[in-house]
Amino acid sequence: MLFNVYIHDLPDTVSRKYGYADDLAIMLSRPTWKAMEEGLNEDMGTLVAYLRRWRLQLSIGKSVAAAYHLSTREARRALEMTDPSQPNNEGITVLHNALCGGHYNVVDSLVCIEANVRAPDSHGW
């Protein structure tokens, strides 16, 4: 019952959502890579807002992005996801948000994926 309550509250996304226990997968199929990247970035923004509203923390270390394509030539193409060094709509970068919230495991993960540690927020900090 608790699981049904948990997944019922998830926000609407363009992608299909598949949930099991505390894991969530979003899947999207689009005719071009650009359209797929735009859709996934939009959905990640929606899910981040949901997590923030409920004070839930994404486990960066357990998060994975994967893309599949039927063409062998495209098999190793990397997804272009939103730059975590860019300020959000409130002018705060993910790194600043993690530091201020004391989420040092998230800070470590951001540094590991080479987020710009010198990126200023919209106020120049």
UniProtKB/TrEMBL annotation:
Superkingdom to which the source organism belongs: Eukaryota
One Gene Ontology term from the biological process aspect of the record: regulation of apoptotic process
Assigned keywords, A-Z: ANK repeat, Apoptosis, Nucleus, Repeat
Compartment list: Nucleus
ANK repeat feature ranges: 90-122
InterPro entries found in the cross-reference section: Ankyrin_rpt, Ankyrin_rpt-contain_sf, ASPP1/2
MF-aspect GO terms: p53 binding
Name of the protein: Reverse transcriptase domain-containing protein
